[in-house]
Structures are given as C-alpha cells and as structure tokens.
Amino acid sequence: MEYLIGIQGPDFVLVAADNVAASSIIQMKHDYDKMFKLSEKILLLCVGEAGDTVQFAEYIQKNVQLYKMRNGYELSPAAAANFTRKNLADYLRSRTPYHVNLLLAGYDEADGPGLYYMDYLSALAKAPFAAHGYGAFLTLSILDRYYRPGDSAISITRLNKRFILNLPSFTVRLIDKDGIHDMEKLPIGPK
Amino acid sequence: MALQDVCGLHNPPLFPQWTAPLSRSFMPEDSTHLSGGGIHGEAFSTRLPGRGGLSPLEFYMPIAEYLTESPINFGQTSLSSALTKLLEIDHLYPSLPSISLPPPTPCPISPSVPLPFTLSHGTTTLGFAFQGGVIAAADTRSSCSGLVACPASPKVLPIHSHLVGTTSGTSADCALWKRILSRELRLYQLRHRRRLSTGGAAKLLSHMLHPFKGTELCVAATLCGWDGDEEKHDVASTPQHANAPTNQMTAIIYVCSDGLRLQGELFSVGSGSPYAYSILDSSVYWGMSVQEATAVAREAVYRATYRDAYSGNNVDLYHVTAKGWRRRERENLKEEYYREKERERKRRVIAY
C-alpha cells in the first residue's frame, strides 16, 4: 500500500512518496514523511516493515553524517548507495534482516543526478526511473512508454499527477545542483 | 555528572576492574561506599552474577535476568549458554560510553514450544491533544483467552510528573517496560539536570524494544506528555485559535514493539480502537474546552467498550498540562450503560 517513485532528469532527480502510516486497517497518520535526508543533496526514501524502515534509514543517515564529520567531506550518492546496500546485505543472512525497500536519489558535482533502486534482498541498480509498491505495477509501464532522457521538470510533474493511485496525498521533492527543494504536496482529487 | 561524582568514577577506561573477568563483577549502584576522588581496587560489593561489568552510564537491559529468573520457563531453549555469551561480549567492550544494546537473544523463543496461555491484546486506549493540554484515557479490562482476568487494571500509567503512557498489548510487558522507561528517564534527569522530552522518551523506548523484534513481546504504548518548563505555562493559557498548536508543548507519540514510532495529535490503540477513532475523529478539535475533551474521551472509550468484547469495566482518564498530570476518578461504565438504556426507554415511551 506504500508507494515510492523517482525519476531522473538531465540535471535533477524528482522523487515522491505517499504520506500514509498505516497499522493493519487503520491509517494512523496521513502526513507521514518517508524521506530521510542523508546530506545536502542526497535523499533516502524508505518503505517496508513497520519498525525496520525508520530504524534502518536512521542508521544509514547517522552513519553518512558521521562520515562527513570524520573526513570533512560528504559521501557521494553512489558511495552512499553502495554503503546502504552493503549494510542491507550484511543483515540479510543474520537473525534480524531488515525488510525495507529503498530509493536513494542524489546529485553529485562530478557525475550529475543519480537514482538508485534497492530492495530488501539488497539488490542495487542505478536507473533513470524507479518505483516501489503496488503503484509501481501501474506507473513503470507508463514511464517506459513516455520517459525521454532529456525531459524537463515540468512535464515530469504533470506525468506524476496523472498516474498516482488513490492514496490521499504525496510529498514531492526535487534534488538538483542547488540541493533539495520541497515541491507542492500533491493531494489527489478527481482529474 | 552527579552519579559519577558520587561514585568517584571519573575515567572508567582506566579503571582496572572493568576488564576483569566475570567473577569480579561490579555493581555500580553499590559504589557509594567507594571513597571519592580516586580509583581504588578494594571495597567491592559481593559478586553478583548476571550483571557484568557495565559502566554506570550504560543502559542495563534486563533481558538475560528476567528470562532466567522467571519462575515459569516457557518457550526458552538453552539460555545458560546464551547468558555467558552475552556477558562475555559485554566484557570485551567495557569502556564504551555509548548505549550498548546486547546482541539479539541468540536463541529466540521457538514458535513450536506452546505458551501456557494465549496472549491477547484486547483493550481500548486513546490519547489526543487540544488547547488545554493532553487527554489520555483507557478502559480497565484485562482479558486472557476469553475470560476477564482483571476488571480493574490500570492501563494509563504515569511515567513521570509530565508524562503518562497508555499501554496496550501484553500487560506484563507493558508494566515492565513502563518501569524501565521511568527509571531511564529519571537517570537522564539526574545526569543532565533536565527532563527528557516526550520525543526523546519515545525514541529511547523504541530503541530499547528493538532487540526484541520478532519475539513474542508486544507493547503498544502512546506516550502523552508535556515538554518544556513549568514557567512557560502562561503561553498555554493564552487562547489558542482553531488549528494552531505551534507553541504548544504537548506531544503524543505512539510506540510499538515492532518498531513503529509515530508522532501525531490523536491516537487510539487496541482492539477497540476503530470504534474510538470514529468518535474522536468527528468530535475532537483543537479549541475544545477541558470539559468537552474529557466528555469526548469518556464517550469514545464507552462506545468502544460497548462494541468490543475485550474492552470494558471502567474508564481511566488523565489530563496532562504544564503543571503535570491530573487523574480523574475511575468511572464504572456499567452506570453509563444503564443510564443510556434508561434514556432510550424513556425516549421510546415518549415516542409512542
């Protein structure tokens, strides 16, 4: 029931996540933020089993910040993604595997924008667009059909509005060379 | 820090006995008889098995103890080896000032061993914030595999003067963890000379429960508290407008043993929570008065006890403000039920 999506453009990455925190049939929160800021230009989006998401994401977040404190410079998105994957893989065959699906989106000075897809089996793939959740079944085919590598931000936001399912609202953020920007929260109404 | 001064332990890493083998265990709490300002080799308390060489600032997790000392050993397999393994690991890193969580129990409770009785999580608890503070309410029925084990159990437990926690799940687990949380918050207050915020308390509880994820432990608590100093209570008394909890110091955080931790304005937990949610969602608004809020909370618990078999008997209500929590007298919902029946009967008589 949770949903994440990320789309990479020529010089930005656009990410969106739904805002629902549910416990069985009850929606406990409808304004829950699933994005964790790892650094000025890296966001980690995390869905999965109830406690694992926050626990794992905060662990990664604090470790990335520790790296910056120790070494004076930040981890690049590629390095952060590989670090995250390594941690997932280490815990996979332990007694406490983390059941989380992640999207890591970041902007690197040298390599440009990057979107990394990770799943709970610690697979890692750098992709131009990616999604998690039941909504992924619907949106990936649309992205396959309409995605062009040089798309501008505006057309992609419009695309975003069209295919999101009946989850009440979404947090949307954009990462470019100037950092992370909050875009308007998307409430879904009849279109 | 206060405790360290009292104990005379200024540099735990230099303390020779921290790296001593298990047989020379040290009890931090008994160290008041150590003379201050210096590390001495003598004046140790008697050996205490199961404690390990924990530095006084490490949080002590009673996992090993309560599992082995419990009179009813069910579902535990070969714990003695697990115990020594746990303590050895503690001794390898005695000087870590950070919180050291022991590794997850090496032998998890195997699902094939049956528990002596089925655990059930029947309850209705709720907590919400409004301009006059925080209301926490709960029913008082403890059920156990289809019968009422206790009709008058307290499910809203005060943790400190400005924090109450509603508990749901296994009663014993909730009582234990509430006490552990009270102890850790008190220690924090002594060390840092300020109260830990509700968010901090929730994070602490969540991290303490994390090693037990996947076991049968079930605790779903809503921590309702007031943060900030008492001198700021005049801020709260200024009239707050419809949806402006901005300078309010209330905090309601739901913590679950499966790791979920959510902050919000209104939560209800338990088997009767859907019934309570529907009453609360329609009636709770920020600007309500204390009487209104109390009435709504009481009504929500009453409606939940009406429909849910596992909730019932009485309703407990706590109101937390800047001055601390206040407990409303426990009310038996049987009276309310009969009153409503009477009203219904009268209404029907008038109608015909």
TrEMBL record, chain A:
Q: Which domain of life is it from?
A: Eukaryota
Q: Name one GO biological process term.
A: proteasomal protein catabolic process
Q: Does the keyword Protein transport apply?
A: no
Keywords carried by this UniProt record: Cytoplasm, Nucleus, Proteasome
Q: Could you give one GO CC term from the UniProt record?
A: cytoplasm
SUPFAM superfamilies listed in its UniProt record? N-terminal nucleophile aminohydrolases (Ntn hydrolases)
Q: Where is this protein localized, as stated in its record?
A: Cytoplasm; Nucleus
Question: Quaternary structure per UniProt?
Answer: The 26S proteasome consists of a 20S proteasome core and two 19S regulatory subunits. The 20S proteasome core is a barrel-shaped complex made of 28 subunits that are arranged in four stacked rings. The two outer rings are each formed by seven alpha subunits, and the two inner rings are formed by seven beta subunits. The proteolytic activity is exerted by three beta-subunits PSMB5, PSMB6 and PSMB7. Component of the proteasome complex.
Give the family, as the similarity comment puts it.
Belongs to the peptidase T1B family.
Explain the purpose of this protein: Non-catalytic component of the 20S core proteasome complex involved in the proteolytic degradation of most intracellular proteins. This complex plays numerous essential roles within the cell by associating with different regulatory particles. Associated with two 19S regulatory particles, forms the 26S proteasome and thus participates in the ATP-dependent degradation of ubiquitinated proteins. Component of the proteasome, a multicatalytic proteinase complex which is characterized by its ability to cleave peptides with Arg, Phe, Tyr, Leu, and Glu adjacent to the leaving group at neutral or slightly basic pH. The proteasome has an ATP-dependent proteolytic activity.
> What is the protein's name according to its record?
Proteasome subunit beta
Taxonomy of origin reads: Eukaryota, Metazoa, Chordata, Craniata, Vertebrata
TrEMBL record, chain B:
Compartments, record wording: Nucleus
Example GO biological process term? proteolysis involved in protein catabolic process
Supply the name of the protein: Proteasome subunit beta
State where it is primarily located: nucleus
Q: Which UniProt keywords apply?
A: Cytoplasm, Proteasome
Gene Ontology cellular component list: cytoplasm; nucleus; proteasome core complex
**PROSITE patterns annotated for this entry?**
PROTEASOME_BETA_1, PROTEASOME_BETA_2
Specify the domain of life of the species encoding this protein. Eukaryota
Organism of provenance: Cyprinus carpio carpio
Is Cytoplasm given among the entry's keywords?
yes
